[in-house]
Amino acid sequence: xxxxxxxxxxxxxxxxxxxxxKAQLFSLFQVAPLQQFSFQEGKGFSLGTxxxxxxxxxxxxxxxxxxxxxxxxxxGIEGDAMIVKIIFYPxxxxxxxxxxxxxxxxxxxxxxVARNHWPGAISQLKTIIETGESLPWPQ
Length: 139
Known about the structure:
By secondary structure, the chain is α+β, with helices and mostly antiparallel strands.
């Protein structure tokens, strides 16, 4: 099963990419504190606290201005890591960002995250990149 979410962003591809290289993006668009961040293949970031871990991510592939592959392990969700591919498309003064999740089965416990988290996440990413600020999360 594959999920693909696409957003057109009013920013050049190099500006969009620059946000992904910084810890600030990941601390703004997630609902848990950013514990660590290293934008390198084989490294990654984690969200949550020592008492309440939420997410551990590893950058599996980074091709500058083109693609990022992330391996995501969500606390409390059974199964293998979720592989998320983020593809960057330059469109002149704009860009397109595609998020692809294609390693899920019908009975996969990670389906809820793929269906319900990522549409909001790509919307939040677009807002942060275009305005420099994140939207408030619902209470």
